[in-house]
Amino acid sequence: MGLLSQGSPLGWEDTKRYADHVRKHGIVQFLNIYNKVKERQKDVLKWGDEVEYMLMAVDEENEKVQLVLRGSEVLQTLQEKGEKINPNHPTLWRPEYGSYMIEGTPGQPYGGNMSDFNTVEDNMGKRRREALSVLKENETLGTITSFPRLGCPGFTLPECEPTPVERGASKSLFFPDEAINRHPRFSTLTRNIRHRRGEKVVINVPIFKDQSTPSPFVETFPGDDGESVRAALPDHIYMDAMGFGMGNCCLQVTFQACSISEARYLYDQLATICPIVMALSAASPFYRGYVSDIDCRWGVISASVDDRTREERGLEPLKNNKFRIHKSRYDSIDSYLSSCGEKYNDIELTKDEEINKQLLDAGIDKLLAQHIAHLFIRDPLSLFMEKINLDDENESDHFENIQSTNWQTMRFKPPPPNSDIGWRVEFRPMEVQLTDFENSAYVVFIVLLTRVILSYKLDFLIPLSKVDENMKVAQKRNAVLEGMFYFRKDIFKGSNPVIDGASATPNGLENSDNGGSSLEEYTLMSIDTIINGKEGVFQGLIPILNCYLANMEVDVDTRCTILNYLKLIKKRASGELMTMAKWMREFVAKHPQYKQDSVITDKINYDLLLKCNRIAKGEEGCPELIGDPVSRNK
Ligand code: GLU
Ligand code: MG
């Protein structure tokens, strides 16, 4: 989850005092990087995935699964056995927000060879086995987007009491500070977000109203001083801590582009794909022990780190703050970066005018300048005393400070100073899947899509306001089958300069109009249409990928693996296979202890997670969720 500095973190008042200093030097650091590497060309396509894991303990006697707060210990063991003794170790492990979380990536990035697609699942399997091998007998690890009973009494091992009234980081009624990673970055972020905002964060998720769910659904909060009761909405599951969001897991992919302009092109194109793939990957229907009416974590995390003051949120006139800010720091992107995207930049972009001017004066073009000037409307959230005065030529911590706490659907990443790393983009909306097979499928799908975007010079751009509307739809229950999404009708007619000399349409399917205005470049489509195509409406991404694959030289084994992955995506989109969200909902609905009251008891949670564990370890199949793939991890 970003930059880790060692040392003594400053409190909010001190951090605030240095905010302009951080921004000023952050911009200088960005300019130094930019000027050194703006002309870099011909970096090769490299990419990597990031998987976030939860550590769980199984209490057979009490039929309970808890989150184990041993992330730091486990992480240290994994690093000592891995990267610390072998620079070529195949896995890398990093901390994550929860003290029950760890994050794993491949040891080296993947490259441009098609056969690399055949190694992703093996590497994820290695990671899973490696982590499992250092756990205790009653412990396991899972790739679960949202732990169903996160924030319920006794959800951690050891059990810890939340501390709403004492001096804590979260002051949550539900989420104890012990569940926050012990590295000071994480509690500092938590505390400073709360201080900056001026109150606890507020997360309200609509509850799924089942037959016996109380209506209206209203909770009482023992220990509350009144703040929570005021913040909680009726018929919603109320949560009050950063951990309810950043304590969730996801699946991310980062690509190195061959040049800055290719990175900007990919950033824009993939931004339109974010809501689609998020709905396709939906895996988080339960919050704080209740069945919710949403399927994805996105809005929960967004609210969990929303550090905007009342003025910035538009609830009070601006007096002490500079800007009215429309979104949380964790949200969808606000502007396209490529020249092709300019005309689709139709949402209001709050930017720091001074910084914008400074960047323009330094020769940065308008689109890139406004992107950076927009990220830099934010204050730093954590600052370490030892890291205030930096060498702007050779360090980039101040730039990274702001950049890495803008958690958007896409991230545009300049190279670190003095490295041979190129310009990169990160794809961030996906929910993590239960098995390595599924996670590999989503990763390979996205990476293949980037190849196809680049080879066929595709253009998915639609007005950004429409992408934002798609983001809202994508999180709703069963959006994958019921949601309608704005999508571009003719993706072979782009206007990007990079697109000049575009290849011919791979399959001659002509697009006709879907009943909407024929003047619009986009129309509403289902995920099935977008992914699998529909005659007369849209070619479908999978048919395009298949066409690309048919023209590529790929060894038989790799081709077979890729086709298996694409089949999963295809069937999830058509509804032939369930999303994790839907599958979990059905499991709970059918559980003998479930009382149709939207409550997930410890026992339901236990049975669900034990089943998940068996499926993830390959001890049990799950045809309704993943079909019948031939496992690559024999
Ligand atoms: N866990 C966060 C999520 O689910 C992402 C944290 C990160 O940026 O690594 O989106
Ligand atoms: Mg992470």
From TrEMBL:
EC class: ligase
Alphabetical keyword list: ATP-binding, Glutathione biosynthesis, Ligase, Nucleotide-binding
Gene3D superfamilies from the UniProt entry: 1.10.8.960, 3.30.590.50
InterPro entries assigned: GCS (IPR004308), Gln_synth/guanido_kin_cat_dom (IPR014746), S1_domain (IPR003029)
Known pathway: Sulfur metabolism; glutathione biosynthesis; glutathione from L-cysteine and L-glutamate: step 1/2
Cellular component, GO, one term: glutamate-cysteine ligase complex
GO BP annotation list: glutathione biosynthetic process; negative regulation of apoptotic process
Protein EC: 6.3.2.2
Start and end residues of each S1 motif domain: 26-70
Cited function: Catalyzes the ATP-dependent ligation of L-glutamate and L-cysteine and participates in the first and rate-limiting step in glutathione biosynthesis.
Protein's UniProt name: Glutamate--cysteine ligase
